[in-house]
Every structure is written in structure tokens, then in C-alpha cells.
Amino acid sequence: MWLFNQPPREILKERHQFDPSDAWLEHLQKSSVNIGASGSFVSEDGLLISNHHVGSSSLQKLSTKEKNYLRDGFYARTEAEELKCDDLEINVLQSIEDVSARVNEAVPKGADAETAFAARRKVIADIEKESLDKTGLKSEVVTLWQGGTYHLYRYKRYTDVRIVFAPEQQAAFFGGDPDNFEFPRFDFDICLFRAYENGKPAKTTNYLKFSPTGPRDGELVFVSGHPGRTSRLLTMAELENVRDQGLPYSLASLKRREVLLGNWSERSDENARRARQYFFGVQNSRKALNGFLAGLLNPDLMNAKATAEKDFKAQLAGKPEFADALAAYGKIAEATKALSKDQARYALLEQGAGFDSAAFRIARTLLRAGDERPKPNGERLEEYSDANKASMELGLFSPAPIYTDLEILTLSDSLTFFATQLGGDNPLVQKVLAGKSPHARAVELIQDTKVRDVAFRKKLYEGGANAVSAANDPMIELAKLIDPEARALRKTYEDQNEVKHQAHAAIARAANAVLGTGGSRYPDATGTLRLAFGTVKGYTEDDGQAVPAFTTIAGLYDRSKTMNNRPPFDLPASWEAGRKHLNLKTPFNFVSTCDIIGGNSGSPVVNRAGEFVGIIFDGNLQSLAWEYAFDDKQGRATSVDSAAIIEGLDKVYHAKELVRELLDGKRSEK
To answer: Beta-carbon neighbour count of residue 431 at 10 Å?
Structure first.
């Protein structure tokens, strides 16, 4: 997961005899977009492609009981038919600047954790605001190497984004949860959007030329996307805490919600429609975290991590200039232990696991926005800084539907979880429940709150803290009730993480000095744009079964027939009807050794010529351990082949104008 300003040139030259030019890298960078996950421009008229499961949230928000775009798909045959996504934004990285010296100089030497955190937060907020004011571009200071380096990323922002095409969910997620994180796969997991500026399709000079043939087996390919996070630089103390406490807690919570949402969805088709996106997210997260845990329970992985840490410490031993790095391991262990004591309360109160409701999240945002906005920019909570204001407001004022029955369901269950975790006699639990059962309290809160009304939100937000306080809204009062302890837990979390931050920075400086940086090593993923490379390549399972790199469209029909066409292996009517027109030998999905993780969904896969040859939508089970260490023996990234995209759009959906735009790189003139 290489930085675009520090590409692995020597490795690419040595292994693949390829040296990407600065122009090649800049073009790929500015063709790639962050759409909450990843995506890319594929025409000069603002057309961009990502995954169906990336666009599914917008599809669900735009759907109604009568028009279910998520289930049935959507195609805008004209510009006027394109559906605007009210709370969706895309960001395109324009430049990267190293601001490490300024950030580090702002932190007093020898400062305690609280002082150091406040000083760093202030200077980062100042840098971001200065950049925003100067350039008009969204600006973010990104922490790399766990605090060893700071880069300023500037983005061009689009807030008028419209859906152009989406297949049926069953085509996009054929095989459902049973086939998720598996291979072979047969998924048409794409969604096409268009970015607009000033009410017209955006003119995007950087876009990827679409290959009608896709990649070849063994071909070198690249992935440009936004991997959410990795934990490859964690110490053994941190990994053991994640294995023994963090992941088991998260999995227990996810499994509880999965049962809740699954049972509720089975009660009616409308329930299933309303809960579908949330339910899918829970199922996907549960399966991913199971894979993470399997990785940390693998002795080979953990022994390799322990050996690497031991060997690195040995390289530093006896060298006074690295004494702080050696001491850092103990500091990280102590801070990790301190954080683990309040890990559950932090999740319940500050992260909101005890109050799972859109209305509660809105109420807390209104409450904290009122409290934070009068403060100097550098002293606010990060999410309320000037640099983050526009994105925060876009989400806060979204007109997306909020369903009271689903809200009551999730809030009731999370309040029950909250009470059982802290104990029914806990004073805060008693205040939160106000003498009622969790279900009765949830009904009262959801029915009586007004925060679902966008106009009400805007009025309170514009009125500030006084207006929020005077509203006497029950959900805001609940947020206010738990806020003192939630903020206190956040303060402890920030202080202890500052200790870890400084310790990791010391380790990073030592590692960069001993092992090198630039094109030889890369930092953990941070949700920002990265470049990965690999080859299109199959693999061999532990039982000796060879798994080819490609599936074909014919395999889709064979898989459905083998499973008796029963859900989730049933075919949409469009694919049944289109079968006689399709070239069944067309490659459908393929795997590669490109390094990906959650957040890479929708990433373009390109060849040496920079052509779009596929789109990442998943990884296999073996790739889930890449959270902690990359190994391409069996781990693979899974993509939809560009050849299948053209074939499906043309022969199944009869989207000939869209096919023409993809192949020509521009809309046809009429």
C-alpha cells in the first residue's frame, strides 16, 4: 500500500521491468476518487465507477416501498433521469505536502500527553484551515508511520453526485453471505455515478481509458484506492490486546445485531428493504472480523511478528540514539493496558454502541456542534474543525429517510446491551432508562424526538448551544445526560493514545533510520489514496485444489444450476433473459496478488498502460489476515473484469449509450 509520492520504483524495475513516470502516477492519482470507499473517473464527462455495495446506501435512501432501486436496479437513459444523492460527496486528491517539521516543532519537548495532544491538534487544525482558506480545497493532515510523518492532502470536492446505473442487488451480490470472501465468484458488483459542477456534468480531464478485453493471466496490474486501515505496525502488546479483548467484544456485538436484524427482516419484505443495507454491513463486518481473529490465532503469523519485533530490538540495542525507541515498547504496553480497562465503556458511551440510532447520532452532533463551535478552531473536537465542517453539515442535513420502527428496534436492543454491560443498578443506566424497560424507553425517545425533521435540525444548528439546550428534545437530553462521562472517556482515550502516538513515532524514526523508507517500505493504511501492485494469479488451497485466476459468465449459470437456483444463488430475470445473447466465455471475476483491505472496494485495477481492466470488490478469506501482515501465497484481491462489465451492460441491460461512453471516454453527442 504505497504512497503516491513515494512509489516503489526500484521494486517495480527489479521484479517487472516497469518504471511508472511521474505523469503516469499523477494521471492515476487524479482519476481516482474517494466516495466513502474507492472509485475512479472513466469519462471526461464526470462518469465514475465504484461498487454496487458502495452505492447501495444511496440506492436504499432513494428507494421507496413502490420503487426499490436497491433490489431492482436502476438505469438513467438520459441526463435528466440521473438520481441525485443528497448526502454523498466525492474527493479527488490534488496534492501532497510534507508538513512534519511544522507539526513536530509545535509540540513542546518533554510535554506531558495532554499538553502534547492539545498542541498537535491545534497546529494540525491551523494547517488545515490555512490550506482551505488559501486554496479552497478540502485539506487534511494525515498521520503516517503512527506519528513519524505528517502529510497535508488537498482534495477537490464534488457534492453533486448522481446515480447513472446500478444492477439488481442479486446480480451484484450473487451468492450472498455464503460466497462473501470466497472464490470462485460471479458478481456484477458495479455502480456508475456522475459528478456535477454548477448543475452540469463535471469536465474531468483525468479519467481512465476503459479496456474492453480486461487483463491476462500473469499480467502486472495496479490498484489505486483508499484502504481504510491496517494494523501491520502494531507491537505484540497491541496485537495480543486486539486478539484477546478487542475483536471478541466486537464480534459478540456484531453477532447480536445480526440475529436481531435477520429476524426482523424475515417478518416482511418492507422490513427487509429498510434494514437491508445495515444488515449487509453487519454480516460483512462479522465475517471480516472473524478473518482478522483467525489471523491473530494463527501461530505462524504471531510467531513471525514476535520474531520480527525481537530482531528489530536487537538491532537497536546498545545504540544510545535509539534508546527512546527501545523504551517505547514498554510505554505502548502500559498505555494499551490502561486503555483496555475502559474499552467497553468507551465503546458504549463515546462510540455510541449503547445507543444505536440515527436519531441519537443526530442529537449528539447537534449538542456537540453547539458546544464546540464557539471554541477556537484548534481546540475543538476534530470532527467539528473548520476543515471538516462542510462534510459534517452535509451528513447532518441529509434528507435520507429514518424509519421509526427500525430505530425502535435497534435502540431498544442497544439499550438492553448497555444495561447488561454496566449492570441494571448502575446509576447512569437508571438515569438513561428513566424507570422504564429498554423497549419502552426506546419507544418514548424515538416517538417524541423531533431530530428526524431536517428543518428542526437546521434551526437548532444555526441557533447554537442556547437553541439546542432550549429545545428540550428527549433525544438531545439523552445525549446531554451521557456526554460528561463520554467526553471524559474520550479524554482518557486521547491521552493514552498520545503516549502510544509518541512511542510509535520513536519506533518509526528508528525503523526508518535502520530499514529505510521511501520506495522500500510503506506506512499502515490511513483511509487515504495508496498504490498497490501485483499479478493476476490463481492459487492452491490447503487441500491441494487449484483455483484458477478467472471465472467466466458461463460459470455464473453453472453455479446457479448447481445450487438449484435457490436464494442467494438465484438469477435476476434480466440475466435469465440475456443468457442467449451473452458470450459465455467472457471473463467475469478474477483474482490478483494486489494488496487490499476494507476501503479498497471500488478501486480501479489498471494495467501498465493505465487502462481500466477491472474493479476491486472483495478479497478471499485468506486475504483477511492482511490486516496484520501481507502474504500472497493464498491471499487474493477479487475484481470484476472490465470485459464482463461491457458485456453485461450491452447484452443484459441494453445500456448501449453507457457502453459507448465507457469505450469512447465521453458522452456521445446527439
So the answer is: 12
d(CA 236, CA 242): 10
Alpha-carbon distance 457 to 480, whole Å?
A: 16
| Type of residue numbered 359 | A
Can you point out the beta strands (E) in 382-540? Answer: 530-535, 539-540
What does the CA dihedral 557, 561, 566, 568 come to, rounded to 10 degrees?
-40
pLDDT given at position 422: 96
Give the C-alpha separation, 618 to 601, whole Å: 7
pLDDT for residue 521 is more than 90 = no
Q: What type of residue sits at position 471? A: A
* Cβ 99 vs Cβ 152: under 8 Å: yes
pTM, two decimal places: 0.94
Q: Which residues contact 209 (CB under 8 A, 6 or more apart)?
A: 609, 610, 611, 612, 665
Where does 374-433 show beta strands of DSSP type E? Answer: none
- The per-residue pLDDT for range 579-634, each reduced to its tens digit, is 999 999 999 999 999 999 999 999 999 999 999 999 999 999 999 999 999 999 99
Cβ-in-10-Å burial (0-12, 13-18, 19+) of 470 comes to exposed
DSSP 593-661: -----TT-TT-EEE-TT--EEEEEEEE-GGGGGGGT---TTT--EEEEEHHHHHHHHHHTS--HHHHHH
Angstrom distance (rounded) from CA 245 to CA 307: 23
Distance of alpha carbon 161 from alpha carbon 46, whole angstroms: 9
CB atoms under 10 Å from CB of 484, counted, come to 11
Q: Is 196's pLDDT higher than 70?
A: yes
Distance CA 404, CA 419 (A): 22
C-alpha–C-alpha distance, residues 20 and 27, integer Å: 11
- 8 A C-beta contact, residue 210 and residue 612: yes
Q: Is 210 helix (H, G, I), strand (E, B) or coil?
A: strand
Report how far apart, in Å, the C-alpha atoms of 578 and of each of 385, 565, 583, 654 are: 51, 16, 10, 9
* DSSP 8-class letter at 2: B
DSSP 216-254: -TT-EEEEEE------TT--HHHHHHIIIIIHHHHHHHH
Residue 197, C-alpha cell as written in the block: 459542477
